[in-house]
Amino acid sequence: MTDLNSLRYTAEHEWVALEGDVATVGITDYAADKLGDVVYVDLPAAGTALTADQVCGEIESTKSVGELYAPLSGEVVELNDAVVDDPSLVNSDAFGAGWLIKVRVDASAAEALLDRAAYEALTGGEA
């Protein structure tokens, strides 16, 4: 189980786990629950340059289409092929097997993201 308190969060409901200068990015279980059953994900290819707060992908569910925002600027180094093949992983394991992309970033930039308490306040304690 991922330690949710060790993650950083965005107001757009992405989570970030840092390991050195590589950020693993996914959407929170709160966002996955609001979307409903995820049926398709469109992720940026490895090598793609991302700009923080810009749309970099799409998550489609049976209820709606949501945009994936880059939480930090950097270069995509890996995408989760398992989620592309089985988008339901976003619903069943948002903080584990449902991760979306890995991005090489300036790790100090993550300090500007929300901590768990701030994210829970944003979502009314539902996170």
Q: How would you portray this structure in words?
A:
It holds the Pfam family GCV_H. It is a single chain. The model has no long low-confidence stretch (mean pLDDT 94). The protein is an alpha+beta fold and 127 residues long. The protein is globular, with a radius of gyration of 13 Å. It is built from four helices and nine strands. It has a single domain (4-107), classed as OB fold (Dihydrolipoamide Acetyltransferase, E2P) (Beta Barrel). A hairpin with a 4-residue loop joins strand 1 and strand 2. It has helices at residues 29-35, 81-85, 89-92, 116-122; strands at residues 8-9, 14-19, 22-27, 38-42, 49-50, 55-61, 65-69, 74-79, 101-105. The chain has a six-stranded antiparallel β-sheet. Strands 4-6-7 form a three-stranded antiparallel β-sheet.
User: What's the N-to-C terminus distance?
Assistant: 16 Å
- Per CATH, the class reads Mainly Beta
| Strand order of the biggest β-sheet | 1-2-3-9-8-5
As for the number of domains, it is 1
How would you sum up the major sheet?
Answer: 6 strands, antiparallel
Quantity of strands, as a count: 9
Find the CATH topology. OB fold (Dihydrolipoamide Acetyltransferase, E2P)
Which structural class is indicated by helix and strand composition? alpha+beta
Shape: globular
Number of contiguous helices:
4
CATH architecture: Beta Barrel
> Taking all residues together, what is the mean pLDDT?
94
- Please give the share of residues in helix: 10-25%
Order of helices and strands: EEEHEEEEEHHEH
What would you give as the CATH superfamily?
RNA polymerase II/Efflux pump adaptor protein, barrel-sandwich hybrid domain
Strand content: 25-35%
